């Protein structure tokens, strides 16, 4: 299997047969084979019995493939005691591109725009100031960067980004030579020699372009992943929408009709869900004591606007106006003065112009039936200029909420200095402390259906007033919002958005935090929130009383959701019991919104990106990380001869390292047997970076590439969290977990404090709570007062110095002989 995958690394592979191994039964052998499949991106396609007898039913025949568009079935036959697996592939002849339409945006066009904007006399005094500004920008943009349509000729047009003008010239010369050979006017050897040189130039141009593109995309994992897929010819062909879509047995055909239905579907989903909800309470019942503080938005100055431009990410995607972040940043000097005036006018008058509230929606298929509108995710693109205004307001709103401690203290989403790791740390601490008190814990993981799309505007504005926020500007911001859906070049009619916080906006997430902020007062659960991810915990001495209390309180929480027009997703809302082997059932009365009776006590649940189980031993998550790293290893193995070492190192740091770092302070305390596979895959990855042999020693490679080994990386992350605690740079709920303890005696120059872990009987699965303070306390005191960047650099330097770079002295070493 491995040999086939390596020999046909760049090919589409289908392997079928009798494997004499039951794919349907979990076993150590299955885990080992699954790891090999993942490493070579091969997926078993059959999960139903292919051989049956009177006493057994096994899945021993299968089809493995790296294709995503393969269709399989099993035919029941009496020819033998095995059923017949079959597969077929749909193929479609691609239509040749006849014309290409694009805007001419280059250095010359941008310089023309700059000159035109500098010479522009802005008419911003009257009531139509916003409209005049918008029209002027559009007029100059269309004049300097016109839309052009021309016939495509691959000998004259760059159909690939890595093609240069020189390559196009060489391509034409190659075709001329081939024609001369066909006519007998030139020697075939000359043509073959030129063809060899031409192909070599293509490989080099491709290698250089992708290396530069990946380097420029540092920090953007998704973009880097796409670039490597392109470089290794693994990019999926752009999937077009079906020519026919179905909704409630009604068929929709033609791009315009489908685009209009998509737009209607997305704007009606929120109101339709809200209309199905009936509540016995009002959302005002949960708003007890209004805030005494007040927020009135303030105008900004030139320096503040300049800082907002600096923070603007240079994305090239654009809304309906076609002006991207990248272009707007380029034009900063030329438009700063009129833009500052309009931002301040919007704030002072409480007006947001309608054309800054228009969203362009692009439907992207998620999974499932492509003819189902519900299986497409709407990507919302707003005008870039509106994001400047939103950033101004978001900064002031965030500052007000944090300064006055108005947000729930266990809300960890979309807040400065709050991370998923903190939510996990608090979650596990509450369970461990309950265990120390000999108490059981039940946790309900509530899933909200289209949460951001179903926010009721009137309820949101009332809650903002409750928290002391002047809502004049926000009322304008939420009203008269419109959107259209675009499919290729087809644009739907516009529709008005009547509920929900704006998707794709800067301000939307913080508005949702305000909306859900009073949920914790609805019940006796401890609520850990990460934006719309809602986790409800309750502790008790025995299973029976805990079950009764939990069922009583979940009914109260469900009532809060109903009164706030939010819909719980019954199929995705799960619960888990900890510290007990007794069966606990969470049931909801048939008159309530949610029916959890159908939901079983899950064995694994993903909580803020980390797989947890009832024993909190992190085995499932480490296996999940192994799967992710195996896919990256496969990708890097395909790119190893295309990209230089420096770019492969960047790929490791951009794609693999984030999976190792993500919440590793939590799962890093897993048993060594669970971490062993991760260490092995990490070693394979570093060998690929330098094209080393499959069994080459890795310690010297880690040192050369300045990559920390898995255990050392986890220790560094623990030390960083300890540093933030020591310097009191963590959310209050996390600062409560540990204590700073005075040393009994200190020498001059020593730190006077160590970190004390919570008083818990530390079992193996509890170790991550103890590892953080123990790692910190073991550090040299001279490191602890350094700046965070110097602190990290010094720890890494110590680790690298401990790695050996000496040659192997073992005469019988398998790797060296």
């Amino acid at each position: 299997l491995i040999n086939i995958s390596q020999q046909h690394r760049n090919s589409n592979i289908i392997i079928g047969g009798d494997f004499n191994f039951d794919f349907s039964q979990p076993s150590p052998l299955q885990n080992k084979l699954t790891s090999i499949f993942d490493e070579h991106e091969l997926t078993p396609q059959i999960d139903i019995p292919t051989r049956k007898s009177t006493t057994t039913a096994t899945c021993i025949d299968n089809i493995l493939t790296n294709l995503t568009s393969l269709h399989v079935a099993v035919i029941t036959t009496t020819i033998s005691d095995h059923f017949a697996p079959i597969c077929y592939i749909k193929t479609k002849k691609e239509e040749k591109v006849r014309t290409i339409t694009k805007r001419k945006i280059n250095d010359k066009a941008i310089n023309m725009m700059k000159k035109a904007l500098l010479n522009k006399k802005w008419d911003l005094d009257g009531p139509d100031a916003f409209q005049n500004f918008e029209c002027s920008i559009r007029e100059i943009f269309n004049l300097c960067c016109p839309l052009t349509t021309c016939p495509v000729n691959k000998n004259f047009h760059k159909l690939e980004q890595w093609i240069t003008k020189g390559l196009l010239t060489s391509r034409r010369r190659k075709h001329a030579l081939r024609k001369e050979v066909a006519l007998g006017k030139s020697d075939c050897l000359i043509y073959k020699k030129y063809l060899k040189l031409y192909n070599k130039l293509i490989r080099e141009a491709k290698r250089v372009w992708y290396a530069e593109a990946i380097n420029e995309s540092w920090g953007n994992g998704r973009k880097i992943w796409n670039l490597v897929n392109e470089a290794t010819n693994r990019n999926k062909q752009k999937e077009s929408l079906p020519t026919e879509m179905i909704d409630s047995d009604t068929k929709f055909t033609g791009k315009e009709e489908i685009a209009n239905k998509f737009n209607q579907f997305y704007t009606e989903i929120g109101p339709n869900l809200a209309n199905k909800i009936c509540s016995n309470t009002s959302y005002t019942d949960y708003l007890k004591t209004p805030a005494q503080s007040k927020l009135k938005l303030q105008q900004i100055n030139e320096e503040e606007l300049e800082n907002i431009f600096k923070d603007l990410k240079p994305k090239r995607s654009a809304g309906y106006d076609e002006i991207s972040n990248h272009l707007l940043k380029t034009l900063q000097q030329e438009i700063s003065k009129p833009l500052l005036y309009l931002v301040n006018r919007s704030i002072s008058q409480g007006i947001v112009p309608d054309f800054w509230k228009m969203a362009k929606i692009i439907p992207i298929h998620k999974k499932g039936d492509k003819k189902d509108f519900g299986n497409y995710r709407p990507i919302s693109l707003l005008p870039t200029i509106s994001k400047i205004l939103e950033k101004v307001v978001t900064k002031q709103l965030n500052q007000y909420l944090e300064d006055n401690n108005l947000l729930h203290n266990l809300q960890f989403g979309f807040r400065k200095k709050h991370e998923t790791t903190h939510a996990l740390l608090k979650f596990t601490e509450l369970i461990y402390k309950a265990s120390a008190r000999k108490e059981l814990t039940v946790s309900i993981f509530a899933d909200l259906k289209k949460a951001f799309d179903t926010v009721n505007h009137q309820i949101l504005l009332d809650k903002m007033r409750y928290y002391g926020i002047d809502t004049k500007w926000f009322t304008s911001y939420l009203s008269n919002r419109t959107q259209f859906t675009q499919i290729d070049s087809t644009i739907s009619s516009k529709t008005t958005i009547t509920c929900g916080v704006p998707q794709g906006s800067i301000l939307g997430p913080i508005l949702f935090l305000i909306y859900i902020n009073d949920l914790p007062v609805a019940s006796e659960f401890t609520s850990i929130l990460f934006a719309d991810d809602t986790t409800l915990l309750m502790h008790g001495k025995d299973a029976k009383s805990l079950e009764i209390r939990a069922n009583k309180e979940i009914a109260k929480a469900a009532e809060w959701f109903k009164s706030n027009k939010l819909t719980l997703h019954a199929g995705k809302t799960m619960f888990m019991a900890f510290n007990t082997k007794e069966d606990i059932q969470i049931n909801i009365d048939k008159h309530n919104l949610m029916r959890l009776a159908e939901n079983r006590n899950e064995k694994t649940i993903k909580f803020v990106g980390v797989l947890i189980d009832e024993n909190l031993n992190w085995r499932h998550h480490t296996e999940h990380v192994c799967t992710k790293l195996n896919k990256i290893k496969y990708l890097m193995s395909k790119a190893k001869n295309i990209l230089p070492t420096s770019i492969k190192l960047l790929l490791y740091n951009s794609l693999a390292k984030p999976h190792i770092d993500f919440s590793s302070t939590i799962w890093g305390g897993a048993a060594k047997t669970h971490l062993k596979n991760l260490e092995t895959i990490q070693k394979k990855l570093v060998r690929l970076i330098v094209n080393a042999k499959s069994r080459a020693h890795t310690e010297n490679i880690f040192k050369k590439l300045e990559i920390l080994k898995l255990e050392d990386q986890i220790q560094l992350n623990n030390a960083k969290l300890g540093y933030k605690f020591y310097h009191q740079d963590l959310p209050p709920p996390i600062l409560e977990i540990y204590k700073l303890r005075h040393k009994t005696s200190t020498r001059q120059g020593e730190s006077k404090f160590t970190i004390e872990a919570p008083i818990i009987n530390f079992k193996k699965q509890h170790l991550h709570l103890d590892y953080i303070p123990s790692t910190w306390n073991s550090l040299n005191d001279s490191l602890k007062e350094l700046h965070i960047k110097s602190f990290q650099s010094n720890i890494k330097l110590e680790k690298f110095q401990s790695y050996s770079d000496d040659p192997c002295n073992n005469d019988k070493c398998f790797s060296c002989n």
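The CA atoms of residues 111 and 144 lie 9 Å apart. The first strand starts at residue 14 and ends at 18.
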